[in-house]
Amino acid sequence: MNAPLANPVVALVGNPNAGKTSLFNALTGSRQKVGNYPGVTVERKAGRLALPDGRNAELIDLPGTYSLTPRSPDEAVTRDVVMGTLPGEKRIDAIVAVIDATNLRNHLRFVLELRRLGLPMIVALNMVDLAERDGTRIDADQLAVILGVPVVATVAVRRRGLETLGEAIAATLRGTPAAPAASSGADIRLLQREARVIADTVTLAQGAQRRWSARIDAVALHPLWGPLLLAGLLFAMFQGVFAWAEAPMQWIESLVMAGQSATTAALPDGLLRSLIVDGVLGGVGAVVVFLPQILILFFFILCLEQSGYMVRAAFLMDKLMASVGLNGRAFIPLISSFACAIPGIMAARTIDSPKDRLTTILIAPLMTCSARLPVYAVVIGAFIPARQVGIFGLQGLVLFALYVAGVVGALVAAWALRHTVTKGPSPTFLMEMPKYQWPAPRDIGIGLYQRAMAFVARAGGIILVSTIALWALATWPKPPADWDRPAIEYSYAGRIGLALEPLFAPIGFNKEIALALVPGMAAREVAVSALGTVYSLQGTDADHSEGLIEKLRGQWELPTALAFLAWFVFAPQCISTLAVTRRETGGWAWPTFMFTYLFAAAYVAAGVTYWTAKALL
């Protein structure tokens, strides 16, 4: 028999969320030491493990990873420690592979990859209590026979199985000393197939929740029905944005117009009345009216997230994303950008590849955020008839087409970026599928309330300030007595609009649109409030019986309206987005690049749309 090692080193290895750290804490208690690995900022967590035979072993809690092909500094440390190639780190003597009993199929794949290294290994089958509660029963003895290594059932948070695990570790360390690890050279897809076969073999009873998840995934992840289901859900979302929001939008618009009429009747003609009626109510009111549509959009997104479907959507999109040089991991930051590009850009931190992450950040503003919704809604409401096309509403179809245009534009931009400025390999996509669950009404309600308050705060903050500033620019200086054109044309705002008009005239934009794009730099929806303020100050609606939609119908031609929609598919306006991009990329170079390419794309798209519409209509 081999002499026992004096100071053996044992590594805890496993996928994220396998309960590895809980097991580490249970085995070591307070006997822990936290530091950094040499040359990197990755945390090194080690503790003293008291073995049943009286020896002490050093137990290392390695960062969670899905494979030995690293996609981040953390995962690179795990690979190097396991392979014995990390400078300044002792070679490990044994591995404890921690797997989640409720997700056996996915976690076994990594165990099979670790087994190919030839190092002494014990498998800790963790969270068996959760599996049993769901009705899942796993034959740990049969799993040990198939894998050829000891398998111990554990419940780390309840300290179940720890003594048996300690005995298995001690027995393994009394065996043949570990040889240097060999490269696994594993094909991930082949290992995944093998893992599924083993999981099916050792699972004696499948839990009801797992069975239902499998049945739903048979459709939701099907190569044909899965994408059709995703497209149908997104299409229903955009139809609902118009169909369900029409009544509450009319209520809000009526309140705004009633407030304008009441203020006009209560206050004498002057600056204060103009500020309230034309500036605050005419500008901010033009944006607040679209709150119901924004809440409906968020309702759908929250339901998809909480149900567990959003991750499946990322999996479905992986093949499409791969065609432009990204992988499915970029889908969740991009789908988050439908709400706002800022959290979408911040969510890109989860993407391990620096090139993939940068590409995702640069294309995130092309996803149609909720700030664009007021712009789309007002133009579609003004120029697209509210009639049916078959069983679908034409306005909803146009909105869906605009969202599709944003997605297509993002994919084209990603392909171009991945073949030029962000060229580089794209890593393998691995993602754990969560369980399906009914969205909690309370959580949905809280989420909608938070987003409504954020929108109202935004309307009362940046939109209000921008609107008042524009009102001031559009009010002064006062025209001379013999001025025979609208007073706004003599103001500072009018002069800015006239100066910008030659730049935007080739794409069909008038001076009012050119002027609205300037404060629209603060936030895209400010363009709507700017238009509301400009047209209100022009005095074409003295009794305030018209909303902005009716005003635009009388001022714009259809090609201009279509060009305006095309502009906002690519529009770079949003100072906050540029500021967050600067923070995430560490400088102004990439935000400047982002603004430039988006401005060029918006200009070209609007121009092509305008002249095509002029030729056809």
Quick structural summary:
The protein is 59% helix and 8% strand. By secondary structure, the protein is an alpha/beta fold.
Give me the secondary-structure topology.
Elements: E1 9-14, H1 20-28, E2 32-36, E3 43-50, E4 56-61, H2 73-83, E5 94-100, H3 104-115, E6 121-126, H4 128-133, E7 137-138, H5 140-147, E8 151-153, H6 162-173, H7 188-202, E9 203-205, H8 208-220, H9 225-243, H10 246-266, H11 271-288, H12 291-307, H13 309-322, H14 331-336, H15 341-347, H16 354-363, H17 372-383, E10 388-389, E11 392-393, H18 394-418, H19 441-475, H20 492-504, H21 511-517, H22 526-537, H23 548-555, H24 558-570, H25 575-585, H26 589-616
Parallel strand pairs: 1-4, 1-5, 5-6, 6-8
Antiparallel strand pairs: 2-3, 3-4, 7-9, 10-11
Helix pairs in contact: 3-7, 5-7, 9-12, 9-18, 10-11, 11-19, 11-22, 12-19, 15-25, 16-18, 17-18, 17-23, 17-24, 18-24, 19-22, 20-21, 21-22, 24-26, 25-26
Defining traits:
617 residues; alpha/beta; two-stranded antiparallel ribbon; 59% helix; 8% strand
